[in-house]
Amino acid sequence: MRTLVLFNYDWDQVGFARNAAAYPFDEAGFDLFSFPSNAQLAWFDLTRFVNRLAKQAKRRGWTAVVSNHEQFGALAAALLAERMGWPGTSVDAVLACQHKLYARQILAQVCPSANCDFAPLNTAYGESIPPGLTYPAFVKPIKAAFSVLARTVHNRDELQAHTRFGWWELWVIRHLVEPFERIAQKRLPQAGSAHNLLLEQPMPGAQYNLDGYVFDGAVHLVGVVDAVHYPGTQAFMRFEFPGSLSETLQLRALEVAQQFLRKVGFTHGLFNMEFFYAAASDRLGVIEFNPRMASQFSDLYLRVLGIDLHHISLALARNIDPARLPQITPSAGSAASFVYRSFEPGALVVQPTLAQQSALHAAFPDALMFGFPKGPGEIARDFKWLGSYRYGIVHLAAADAQQLRLDCERASALLGWPTPYAEWPCDTSPVGLASAPTKAKARVALEPAAV
């Protein structure tokens, strides 16, 4: 029996590989971040893609499918599982989570205290922004991933500038959304078009990620990761586990997740809920629900808890209760995913040499590193769409948080990169809602010697 893994890149590539002996798999899907693979975006259609895979399934011996790819993979996996009668997350639940406006409407019904004021921006890209809107506002696409086009705008001029794009940018945006739109219009027509932007009231607080899974309709908590931003921005600086949120607040967040997931019919699969918590007002506010694993955190849970989310995803795809899976002995007391960014469009970012990369793994054999070298045009687009250029990510683990910081400082020095440890009073600084952990292609990747 073989599993089909869709859009298998970055953290997924590492996570599924370490489970390949027990769960042999094949791959399908293309890479959105490298040419010529991403040229397939021009004619990509989810229905045709799933139909082709369904015809191949028996011949290839596939009996299960998984994907943690937000843009296309999670929905494609749900469609294929439904088509073949395999275990999987329901198509309607995936659509409800990924259609950000519809998800807000559902949250307003089941848990309004965890919601925010929101409204669709009823204007096309480049058209004049209507007067009378309330600012500041957080604007994001109704369907998107990688934090693309998600930011806080403080006035009408900023919002107008944010919605103006060249013909090539508009082509990319439309082709990223259209595969989802075709399915949503058939299966979830009441949600409306996904070719639009959503305005939300900015929420203050520290940001967290709740990770869990649903098996046989029961929601299970795996853990909560702290998301720390670069000072004064909505750009992620690092993700830390164990996090700082109390057990009481974690259970409170889990209750919100249970109410939402029950309403949308999410009865099977991994999920991730992003949220804010402001201690001053004791308010918990949901950012969004992701109907798939947050792959960037799988490595953190494995090191600290001995829980392998990629193993869980493969087990769920075969209808195996994750509670029956053996746990691995934890190797660390603290782990983090460190995100290296540039906020100066003209700054020269240098990727580590092979000698520097070797030095990193000599000092930290279990380190996981991804580099994201890009050309000037790609970097310019990142700044326009994301507000920064993410050029690298490093995963490290240590006995405790204090040692982890020291190790990060040493690792950063070995790579020639600044240490991502600037602090900020996140609970008193209102920021816009940020999107899920980004998943760009790792053009330079070093496999960990041991995970």
Would you write up a description of this structure?
The protein is an alpha+beta fold and 451 residues long. It has helices at 11-17, 46-60, 73-84, 91-98, 100-110, 156-162, 167-187, 247-264, 298-305, 309-316, 354-363, 376-386, 401-415, and strands spanning 2-6, 25-28, 62-66, 118-121, 137-141, 151-153, 197-200, 206-215, 218-229, 236-241, 269-278, 283-290, 334-342, 368-371, 389-398, 444-446. It has a single domain (1-328, 423-439), classed as ATP-grasp fold, B domain (D-amino Acid Aminotransferase, Chain A, domain 1), CATH 3.30.470. It has 13 helices and 16 strands. The strands form three sheets. Strands 12-11-8-9-10-13-15-14-16 form a nine-stranded antiparallel sheet, with helices on both faces. Helix 2 (46-60) crosses helix 3. The radius of gyration is 21 Å and the shape is globular. The model is unreliable at 424-451 (pLDDT under 50).
Q: What would you call the quaternary organization?
A: single chain
Biggest sheet, spatial arrangement of strands: 12-11-8-9-10-13-15-14-16
Q: Any idea of the CATH class?
A: Alpha Beta
CATH 2nd-level architecture? 2-Layer Sandwich
Q: Poorly predicted ranges (pLDDT <50, ≥5 residues)?
A: 424-451
Q: What does the largest sheet look like?
A: 9 strands, antiparallel
Distance between the termini: 26 Å
CATH topology: D-amino Acid Aminotransferase, Chain A, domain 1
Q: Into which percentage range does the β-strand content fall? A: 15-25%
